User: What shape does this take?
Amino acid sequence: MEYTKKQIEELAGGERWALFERLNEMILEHYDMEQAWDKGGRDWAACLRYRRGEKTLCTVYFRKGEAAVLVIFGKKEREKFEEAQKEFSDFVQEVYHSSKTYHDGKWMLFDMDTEGLLSDMEKLLAIKRKPNR
Assistant: This one.
């Protein structure tokens, strides 16, 4: 099933949608990115990918009462994070260290349930890709 933006807003819930909108604003302010809405796969209703060319910056997933951001770090990004990890909240460090590392990188899924995540997300995305705006 394909969702409209309004349906996704209702699905995620007001608080999570508000956090997503602030994250979206921050990403578009700092990065020149294409946005691609898609189905959310097996576990999620919908997702929004931020891409430039073949590289994905992050993906935001939505389902009933939830929104989450997926960030994948390759080897160089993991090294940068590990050097600077004390600059991040305990929550982000915990997600980083508990996330599984696959052949293509470390897949970190952050639940969008706290406003404090936004400043951490800005720093995480800057590790992934330098802002170009």
